Amino acid sequence: MSRTEEAAAPVTARRSWPVLLVVVCAQMLIWLDTSILNVAVTTLADPADGLGATPAELEWVASAYTLVFAGTLFAGGALADRFGPRNTLLAGLALFGAASGAGAFAGSAGWLIVARGFMGAGSALLMPATLSVIVQSTPPEKRTRAIAIWSSSSGLGVAVGPVVGGALLSHFWWGSVFLVNVPIVVLCMTGAVAVVPALKGPARRVLDLPGLALSVLGLGGVVYGVIELGNGQSWHGVHVLLPVVLGGALLAAFVAGQRRSPAPSLDLRLFRQPGFTAGSVVLLIAFMALAGHLFYAAFYLQGPRGLSPADAGLVMIAAAVGIVLGSQASPAMSRLLSDRWTVAAGVLATAATYVGYLWFDGGTPIPVVVVLLFVQGFGMGLVGTPVTAVMMSGVPPQLAGAGSAVNSVTRQVGGTLGVAMTGSILSAVYRDRMADATLPGAAGELPPAAQEQARTSAEAARSLAGSLRLPELAAMADRAFLDAMYTATFWTAVLALVGCVVAAGGLRARKAADEPAANGNGRDAQ
């Protein structure tokens, strides 16, 4: 056996579990950082205890991470295929850790935004590398279970983030929520050096630098425009339309170039497999619906339901627990129902929970919310593992990083689109409901400036109501927000149902003949 073949061979079952532990820990960092930031937003806005960040700056503290993450994922997958997933994993961890340390000591919101962008670049190296390590190093009979554990790391990170963030902010300064990443990074890098094999594909890929540049700039432009749309910009304004059009043109040039490139960053042959294409669409839709729903669910819990951020975080842990349990149950469900119907059932379950929000009001019992969030998370847990298994089953080892990047891009872009979609709906409907309302004031109607503030968002109206001691204004804002939430949740449910149809019609069973080439296990078709 040649050295290249030896490097590409799977490790033994006994060694695969320490490898899995390291890559899952690294993968969890991505989701931990995303969820831990949510509890720190209020502190960052405080001029005394934080950075005095404006609402727009806070939007970009979160958005810079997503923008760079989604824009550089294809590059991360190509680098994993070119230099090996372990080397790319170590580089991603190093960049993520360094950016986290810099962000913890940022002296202004602007520098924190820059640090968050570099953290996104580190995550873009991490995510494709972790899945590529699993696909290449796990014995065939353990691979489906390993992917399930990898998928459930998102739920664990989402669950742990708010709890850890709340505890840190109770005892330390705001930078601690970023600094906590550093010791985890050191631990993961030590483990990667110790147990992760130096995997390489059968052929050493040549980097397609023009293609990587086009994919980064194109995805970056589209995601930037979507983020600006979610921030309230008009869809035909220069901040939305121009970057989306330019980004789309660059992506079209990227696709055209990939067709002719002898060493493409994105091998378009991947999409000749119906399972890969359908799986990408299902993941995009499912994460659009989930991210959009969690966006307005957080506002609902802290608005009309009146929970504190810490209490709202504890309630939303139910969704994370559901994701973990659903991911673990998905292999058995796939054996019983097939991949296709397991995914369809999972998406359908999430759609049902979205519909349930149409009956929510300011007095809905918290246990009801917890149950729906758990079912929603369980449904999403059923989706991730079998979709990933179907998508990656036909991907050759030398393109594992590229296939992993597509899998990851669909999740991140879907999440960004979902937040932008629901954010735009919430803003438009809320303003419409409040526009015709006669807002109360201490002496008749509120002055024009205060009226505009109250009509900006329900949070602004509640703040104004508190300062002016006008509980009726807060009640009006809550009613307007609930109307906006009903509209958003209706379209979220419709979107999820479309994903269910795509899963049922497009995710065909894996052929037994394809299994040895893809997974090396020859498992019977489901």
Could you characterize the architecture of this molecule?
The chain is an all-alpha fold and 526 residues long. The protein is 77% helix and 1% strand. It has 20 helices and two strands. β1 and β2 (444-445) form a beta hairpin. α4 packs antiparallel against α16, α5 packs antiparallel against α9 (181-195) and α13 (309-337) packs antiparallel against α14. The longest helix is centred in the C-terminal third of the chain and has 36 residues, at 400-435. The protein is globular, with a radius of gyration of 23 Å. The two termini are 33 Å apart.
Keywords:
single chain; 526 residues; two-stranded antiparallel ribbon; 20 helices; 1% strand; globular; disordered N terminus
Write a short abstract of this structure.
With 526 residues, this protein is an all-alpha fold.
Query: What is the number of strand segments?
Result: 2
Helix and strand pattern: HHHHHHHHHHHHHHHHEEHHHH
Strand order of the largest sheet: 1-2
Shape: globular
The overall average pLDDT, rounded, is: 76
Note the gap between the termini.
33 Å
Label the structural class: mainly alpha
Largest sheet: 2 strands, antiparallel
Count every helix, treating DSSP H or I runs of 4 or more residues as helices.
Answer: 20
Please give the radius of gyration in angstroms. Answer: 23 Å
Uncertain runs: 1-10, 511-526
Strand content: under 5%
Q: Report the helical percentage.
A: over 70%
